[in-house]
Amino acid sequence: MTKDITLRWATPADYNILGKVMFDAVRNGRSNYSEAQRQAWVPVPRSGDAWDKRLGEQDIVVAESLEQIVGFMSLAPKSYLDFAYIRPDFQGRGLFRRLYGKIEHLAIEQKQFRIWVHASIMAQPAFSKIGFQIIKKESVTIANEAFDRFEMQKLLRN
């Protein structure tokens, strides 16, 4: 359960921690990607000016447990769900659905007609469970490692 977890909107003071949450989720969580792929995807926790700029252009909801950020999800311009990461110890508790609920509510308030995402092979089932449909399967290359992923979307009711 997620009763001990609160949700709030991120501030710039959270950005470095979000890079660490992403690193922890990718590098230490359950995965169908190889260690080489995970190393290429997130070699170190993200931080710095480019990271801050990218996050500063998005609406980000964070999940906290005992004042520690344990997950986050973001909505970028053009209704793109850019980030969805939960620390391994907090996965499987319904937190993904709670974070997404805040993102969808925001998108509806903004009069968006859909939310779309590039979902990893690990995240695709979670997105499917909340109503996203696969548009296409694709492969991308990061640091000479190929990754399968899915472009998905969910149409919203406004």
What does this structure look like?
A seven-stranded mixed β-sheet has the order 1-2-3-4-5-7-6. It is α+β, with helices and mostly antiparallel strands and 158 residues long. It has helices at 15-28, 35-41, 49-56, 95-109, 124-129, and strands spanning 5-9, 59-65, 68-76, 80-86, 114-120, 133-142, 145-155.
CATH architecture of the domain at 5-111: 3-Layer(aba) Sandwich
Number of helices: 5
Portion of residues in helices?
Answer: 25-40%
State the oligomer.
single chain
Kindly, what is the distance between the CA atoms of the first and last residues, rounded to a whole number of angstroms? 30 Å
What's the rounded overall pLDDT mean? Answer: 95
Q: How many whole angstroms does the radius of gyration measure?
A: 15 Å
> Which stretches are low in confidence, meaning pLDDT under 50 for 5 or more residues running?
none
CATH superfamily of the domain at 5-111: Gcn5-related N-acetyltransferase (GNAT)
State the shape.
Answer: globular
